[in-house]
Amino acid sequence: MTIVSFLLQRRRLLVLGAATLALHYATIDWIGGRLSSESSRPSPQPPALMSAQLRLTLPKRVESAPEPEVAPLPKKPAPARPRPMRREAPATAPVTTPVSPGPETAASDASTAMAAVVALAGEDINVGQTGTPAPAVAKAEGVVQLPAELTQNLRRYKVDLPPSASFEMTVARVDADGAKWSGAATMAWHTDGGSYRASVEAGVSLLVTRLNLLVLRSEGVIDDYGIAPVTATEKRARRAETATHFNRDAGTISFSASERSYPLLVGAQDKATVPFQLAGIGRGDVNQFGGDIDIQVGEEKEATIFRFQLVGEEELETKMGKLTTWHLTRPPKPGSYSSQLDIWLAPGMNWYPVQIRNTEKSGALTTQTVSNITMSQPGK
């Protein structure tokens, strides 16, 4: 083989290799364009929340003021029943010659007759200077004035509430005797910036059906202190629904299941809104968790102070993968509540509550853990 033929053969190989390489590049570019066009199509499903493992420096622990105590308001005294005037038998008047009454006598007789009619009706009246004086009219009640110790110990929090979202959660319960139950729960949070709606529905699976054990619903407004409930309802299995009313004009919390009422403190919540108020506190300023978080919570028959403490950062295993969370706990409080409430917030996911656990005095444990979070469009 001559040198010329060898060079020609090598040239053909180089040209063939270059053509093959160009064809491969063209094919890859075409496939990439098709994949890009497919991925840019809008999805009919609502946007799901992407998980980000955000790690923040835990705030330095600071001492908190003594936990305030909120006592029920005194019951309103029953209105005093008016005491009827005693009716005495009229004395027998001597027979005398009729005399035309003068003006003063006629006025006196008219007053006496009016008093007699009122007395027969069971009412008192002040007629001139005679009879029983009328009872004093009670002054109209104003807004309840909070005790000085409450207003002095109240801590105001900076709150930035999370965007609207719906949550799917698994429910695992272990009774005090070791019996285990499983179920599902849904939790919803919606706000347009001026008002809100929140709900929780939790149940257990029984063969081919599902039994709702608890349904919480709350509606209200958003104010300078965060969530401001107006009405909250609670329905438990085999029990009638109860309502809690946050009477902001009167400054009281009242209940459909009790005659008691409590003073309404700033930042007061109900059981459905507590996790989202805590999320708003974390979004507002993480350093606020350096001290105890005191929140008044109205629930069914009473309104007490829940004191939450930061336990620390923890990783949770969920159906959404591993989530970095901040664990808050409300220990039992003798004389108020005997259960422990734990809430895990995810800083990398808008501080949403991703796990809630209730530990009863008997040892029974109920845990709700997030399995999916779907963010809602603003205003929807």
What does this entry look like structurally?
The chain has 380 residues and is α+β, with helices and mostly antiparallel strands. The chain has a domain at 166-375. The chain contains four helices and 15 strands. It has helices at residues 3-39, 103-120, 148-153, 274-284, and strands at 165-174, 180-191, 195-206, 209-223, 226-236, 242-247, 252-255, 261-263, 269-270, 293-299, 302-318, 321-330, 340-346, 352-359, 365-375. Strands 8-7-6-5-4-3-2-1-15-14-13-12-11-10-9 form a 15-stranded mixed beta sheet, with helices on one face. The termini are far apart. Residues 103-140 have low confidence and may be disordered.
| Beginning-to-end CA distance, first to last residue | 81 Å
How much is the radius of gyration in Å? Answer: 37 Å
SSE string, helices as H and strands as E: HHHEEEEEEEEEHEEEEEE
Largest β-sheet summary:
15 strands, mixed
- Shape category: elongated
What strand order characterises the main sheet? 8-7-6-5-4-3-2-1-15-14-13-12-11-10-9
Mean pLDDT score: 78
Helix- and strand-based class?
alpha+beta
- Total strand segments: 15
Q: What is the helical fraction, as a range of percent?
A: 10-25%
Summed up, the helix count is 4
Strand content: 35-45%
Ranges where pLDDT stays below 50 over 5 or more residues in a row are 103-140
